[in-house]
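Colleagues,

For the teaching module next term, I've prepared a clean inverse folding example: a structure given as tokens, and then the sequence designed for it. I'd like students to try predicting residues themselves before seeing the answer, so please don't circulate the second half yet.
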């Protein structure tokens, strides 16, 4: 009988990270998709098409910058997601934001357009069941532009708050439906 002297050997492979959120840029559109865990998503928009995205999840923090963005599409599936969007300069180009908040239980969305809109068009569509959560939107002065905001929620405990200067309505087109 022949015996082989084989010694078992364990080899370490490269890490296999599975991010909890995906950020993709395609044709001037920024796509953000999250997993069922709770995520905190921060977006900073310079008003001219550059959007910086930071996502904090159970896997850590990831971030990226995207350019020439005129559309942001988010599909969030977390239990308690937080979205913090802030315009850092006046919006000077068209921007469309579409958010599907899924069926979270306490999502919080803050959309800050308080820097205003100058010669730009803003369309915001937020939908889903945000549970006990809320959506707060701030819109600054609108000069030669317009804003359209569509909150579409399921359930009965959601809060939608909008804050804008009183002179905005007399000089601009604003639609909230």
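(Answer key — instructors only)
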């Amino acid at each position: 009988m022949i015996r082989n002297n084989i010694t078992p050997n364990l080899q370490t492979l490269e890490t296999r990270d599975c991010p909890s959120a995906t950020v993709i840029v395609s044709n001037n559109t920024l796509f953000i998709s999250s997993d069922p865990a709770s995520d905190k998503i921060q977006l900073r928009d310079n008003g001219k098409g550059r959007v910086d995205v930071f996502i904090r999840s159970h896997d850590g923090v990831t971030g990226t910058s995207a350019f020439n963005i005129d559309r942001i599409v988010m599909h969030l599936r977390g239990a308690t997601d937080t979205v913090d969007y802030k315009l850092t300069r006046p919006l000077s180009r068209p921007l469309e934001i579409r958010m599907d908040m899924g069926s979270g239980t306490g999502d919080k969305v803050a959309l800050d357009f308080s820097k205003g809109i100058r010669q730009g068009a803003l369309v915001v569509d937020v939908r889903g069941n945000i549970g006990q959560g809320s959506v707060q939107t701030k819109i600054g002065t609108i000069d030669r532009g317009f804003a359209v905001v569509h909150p579409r929620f399921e359930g009965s405990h959601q809060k939608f708050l909008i804050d804008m200067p009183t002179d905005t309505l007399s000089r601009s087109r604003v639609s909230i439906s």
